Amino acid sequence: MSDQTLKRVDLIFGEYSNEKYKVLATTLARTNEDILKDILESGLRGRGGAGFPTAMKWKFTAEAPGDEKYVVCNADEGEPGTFKDREILLRVPRKVFSGMAICGRVIGATKGLMYLRGEYKFMVPELEKELDIYHEHMKELGLNFQIEIRMGSGAYICGEESALFESMEGGRGEPRNKPPYPTTSGFMKKPTVINNVETFVNVLMIMRLGPDQYKKLGTTDSRGSKVFSVSGDTPIPGIYELELGMPLDRFVEEFGDGDTKAVQVGGASGFCVPRKKFKDTVIGFEGVPTGGSMMIFNSSRSMYNVLHNYLEFFEEESCGQCTPCRVGCQQLLKGIVAVKKGEKKAAYLDQLMKLSESMKITAKCGLGQSVANSFSSIVNNFKEEMIY
Amino acid sequence: MTDCKSLVRELADKYGRERASLLPILQGVVARNKYLSDTCMTDIAKELDLSAAQVYGTATFYSFLDIEPRGEYVVRVCKTITCDMHGKKTIVQTLEDMLKIKVGETTPNKKFTLLETNCLGWCHEGPAMLINDTPYSGLTTEKVHDIISEFIKK
After folding, report:
1. DSSP 3-state assignment of B106?
2. Contacts A304 to B, Cβ<8 Å
3. B56 contacts on A by Cβ (under 8 Å)
């Protein structure tokens, strides 16, 4: 665990360099091998939540056969409690484009696509303006890498990478079977790197600082800083860039309202941590991973209502393609309502728990698999609230 | 409302006639006409050489691609947890009182449609809503009054 636990970091939202696209220009003067080596050395893991090592993703895609490859920026930020990608794109879009361009050069792609959620359409004019500036600079730098924005239309599941490809290809946003993985068969079935908005910015930061300095932030398993979206019962909601690997009790001390009962780490698909476990919980890949969503609940909140809200969310957002998720989400919601009303015995919760465990192993994609995270962590820790 | 055939052709000229052009075209029609009529979806199918079922299948997957008529201003109130905790119900009540419709309905003059939606990404400033593409956050009863009064005048 790091000594300086809650150090505020000013990396991602730090000032641009004086010259536009300066870091990108110096990076492009280096070899692809060199760039990949630095990213590998930095220990960077994807910032969307799953935490796959970024350097490996890029390497696999670079090595995949085929001339047509794509870079996709996943800006379909839909996880409840997450709003960091919007802030990043509003405040430092150039850093995102630079990260994408570096990726394009490394894997040999000439086309980058940014899939932006429909709810963020208001940002498009500003982003397009920035893209014009970007494209002008790329002409000067002699890099053939065009970036285009594609819009989502209000579907949480499209944040799942293969559903996102389906959507960009004009289909229903239904996840594909894996393998094959995007590194060999992504957008248009071509080798594709798909990364979260924040991951691309981190790559640029590694290029600017060098891996050694970047590595000083965070812990062995969770290198670097992370942008957190803090909401709920807190006097200071907002966006905070913090080191990874911090203990949850320190986080609550700083952000809670003094009466914190539980923290939902990682959004509706993440884990609910009750007060008694704050001390032993580390935020990071070695503990509870998060895409950045931190929702704080105080003692006035009913955890039954929280779970009910999450399950309604999942029931609506399930794509309906596979049975465990389609039927499972409905039954979990119906089930907790029945227990609460007294129509079912409290022991029925155990059966529902088994159902959520089945969803975890049988659902086709991350949505259905992760419903069990919030379900079991809330039901286990707040059983009385589910029954009475 | 713009005539569907010419609108679809205009959008196809802009976005292409590939399968991958389908979503931008559907979005373009909804932006202009507020919803996708059956005729419009058939027109798109013809223009892109797809089956009508493929167009319908894609269109009905996305919550922002409406297939029933909507008002000029579509109000979507976020109903996900933090907005719910911070008074979303009062906001919806205020909107229902002002617009004299329930959630899911459109005013008789076709000016407003009131809907609820999942997380809009304004959890730190909830409750929040979208009116067409514009987000409004930190809502209070008074704020909603001011915003909607402005739209009613338009």
Report:
1. strand
2. none
3. none
Instruction: Please check whether residue A323 lies inside any domain of the structure.
Output: yes
How many domains are contained in chain A?
3
Contacts of B133 in chain A (CB under 8 A): 121-122
Give CA separation, A304 vs A196, A311, B40, in Å: 32, 10, 44
Residues with Cβ within 8 Å of residue A290, at least 6 apart in sequence: A49, A226, A228, A265, A266, A267, A270, A283
Give per-residue pLDDT as tens, A98-123: 999 999 999 999 999 999 999 999 99
Residues A150 and A130 both lie in one domain: yes
Judge if ipTM > 0.95.
yes
Residues A204 and A248 in one domain: no
Pair A47, A166 in one domain? yes
Is 2.170.130.20 the CATH classification of the domain at B73-153? no
Q: Is A211 near chain B, with CB under 8 Å?
A: no
In the predicted structure, residue A334 carries a pLDDT above the cut 60: yes
Taking the CB of residue A161, how many other CB atoms lie within 10 A of it?
27
Mark out chain B residues that contact chain A at CB-CB < 8 A: 18-24, 26-27, 57-58, 61-65, 79-82, 84-85, 117-126, 130, 133-135
Interchain proximity B19–A169, CB inside 8 Å: yes
Task: Examine the domain organization and report whether A270 and A180 are in the same domain.
Answer: no
Pair A180, A70 in one domain: yes
- Residue pair A374/A268 in contact by the 8 Å Cβ criterion: yes
Return the domain boundaries, chain B.
Answer: 4-59, 73-153
A232 touches chain B (CB under 8 A): yes
Q: What is the domain range of residue A347?
A: 303-387
Whole-angstrom distance, CA of residue A103 vs CA of residue A93 = 16
Tens of pLDDT, residue by residue over A131-177, are 999 999 999 999 999 999 999 999 999 999 999 999 999 999 999 99
Count Cβ atoms below 10 Å from residue A388 Cβ, excluding itself.
Answer: 9
pTM of the model: 0.96
